[in-house]
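Students often ask what a 'structure token' actually looks like in practice. Rather than answer in the abstract, let us consider H(+)-exporting diphosphatase, a protein of 86 residues. Its sequence is given first.
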Amino acid sequence: MSIIVYLITTLFATDFFEIKAVKEIEPALKKQLIIATALTNVGITVVSWGALPASFTIFNFGVQKEVKNWELFFCVAIGLWAGLIN
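Now compare that with the structural description of the same chain:
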């Protein structure tokens, strides 16, 4: 899923955001980061609800813990968007 997202982001980078001056580089990179983050968010949504069971068990330092697919989605999504903001 992520390969498709990054191919689409590369399409934007190479075809839609033409850079003609040095001052246009940073805004173009910021747009690419936003596009990649938004598309990756859609991708993890599809994977979280489409490929994972509604509830499953993981081992947390030797203790079994039951987690839900939406909890895993929010964990990944928060890290994704925090990385964009940081």
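One point worth highlighting: Residues 25-50 form the longest helix (26 residues). Ask yourself how you might have guessed this from the sequence alone, and why that guess would often be unreliable.
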